[in-house]
Write a structure and sequence with these properties.
This protein has helices at about 1-10, 25-35, 45-50, 55-60, 80-90, 105-125, 140-150, 195-200, 215-225, 245-250, 275-280, 285-290, 300-315, 325-345, 350-365, and strands spanning about 15-20, 65-70, 95-100, 130-135, 155, 160, 170-175, 205, 210, 240. It is α+β, with helices and mostly antiparallel strands. Strand 5 (about 155) and strand 6 form a beta hairpin.
Length: about 375
């Protein structure tokens, strides 16, 4: 394991562990979560069923799972006080809040390639072995495996937590058919803290380690392809892709670590953008500036849907108070931009009607409810 850890560090991973494949004790919780419909429209969660908790069914012959974490805070983020910077962005109605993990390169591509290299090095060391690598790309209970291998513990927000790194990291796995020595799990250290639960804007954390995805802003802005429920729109603020609030509220994230690889550096186009700047992207610009980014997979129409909601919330925030000259100008520009879209939509087909509905909703927010 010492040699494997050294190779992992060289590849940019911060920690690895080894878990057994018997996850039977996690099966009742998984099935109860699905039964309550908390997976929303992520139908693949239900279709895979218990295969998610049975690694040897997903990859026959698997007897161990190597788990790995890779920190993702960009190098440009302040070493201290990064959470305060992010909170401040959420208080600026005209700012566009994109989840920290999505401001650089798609983590799927980064981790998968490096996990493959790590597996190849292991094979060269111990001889031929069967393996497959995964990064949030298959029915895998990532947090369960990582917690059993000692990489961290499951927080009340369901994310993995580490005393050394908080929760700002990605997870990846290598399923192997050799009985590598197991690493010991660690104890949980959340105690009575409820910061993540209390801070969730939509109260999606419905119980300790229980998230109703249907209320989660990350789900609504990324996974959900239909209209965003009207009652949840005002709670989304200026969050247009993902949501970091539960991580920003977590005391352990004062220990969050900077990325060891440059892939997660912030792209210039996503370095503190405004809603108006991103709204003005046409589809060609969206595709060009999100190439190799996790954002690209939601498509231009869903991107505009999300921004329209955020602009509606900005108009609502400015509705009932005296504005500065800059705020009044921004308000006028937003209204004009939304009206211009209705006059000349930038998406077509079924998506056009959906985006238009959110644009009409946004424009209505400049007026007090009747």
């Amino acid at each position: 394991m010492a040699q494997l850890r050294q190779w992992a560090t060289t590849l940019g991973f911060s920690q690895i562990g080894v878990a057994d494949v018997d996850l039977s004790s996690a099966e009742p919780g998984l099935m109860a979560w699905l039964a309550r419909g908390f997976h929303g429209e992520m139908r693949y969660m239900a279709s895979h069923g218990l295969k998610r908790a049975r690694p040897a069914e997903l990859v026959p012959g698997t007897v161990r799972v190597i788990t790995a974490r890779m920190d993702y805070l960009p190098a440009s983020v302040a070493a201290e006080g990064w959470q305060a910077v992010e909170w401040a962005r959420l208080q600026r109605p005209d700012a566009a809040a994109v989840s920290m993990y999505a401001r650089g390169r798609d983590y799927h591509k980064v981790l998968r390639a490096r996990l493959q290299k790590l597996a190849d090095q292991l094979a060269a060391l111990i001889g031929p072995l069967g393996y497959r690598v995964f990064t949030d790309s298959a029915p895998v209970l990532e947090v369960e495996l990582a917690s059993r291998s000692g990489v961290g513990w499951r927080g009340k927000h369901t994310l993995l937590l580490s005393r050394e790194a908080g929760s700002t990291f990605f997870l990846g796995e290598i399923y192997v058919d050799v009985p590598l020595p197991l690493t010991e799990p660690v104890t949980a250290h959340c105690g009575a803290c409820r910061s993540c639960m209390d801070m969730c804007p939509t109260q999606a954390i419905v119980g300790e380690r229980q998230v109703d995805a249907r209320r989660c802003i990350s789900y609504l802005t990324i996974e959900h392809d239909g209209p965003i429920p009207a009652e949840l729109r005002p709670l989304m603020g200026n969050r247009i892709y993902g949501c970091d609030d539960c991580q920003l509220a977590c005391p352990w994230n004062k220990f969050a670590q900077r990325a060891r690889v440059p892939d997660f550096d912030v792209r210039p186009a996503l370095n503190d953008p405004t809603l108006l700047q991103l709204w003005r992207w046409d589809e060609a610009t969206f595709l060009r500036l999100t190439e190799g980014s996790p954002i690209r997979r939601i498509g231009h129409a869903r991107w505009q849907r999300n921004i329209a909601v955020a602009m509606g919330n900005a108009l609502a925030a400015w509705r009932d108070r005296v504005l500065t000259a800059d705020e009044a100008s921004l308000r006028a520009q937003m209204v004009q931009a939304l009206q211009a879209w209705l006059a000349a939509p930038t998406v077509t087909g079924e998506a056009q009607a959906q985006v238009a509905e959110h644009v009409h909703w946004a424009l209505a927010q400049q007026h007090a409810p009747q």
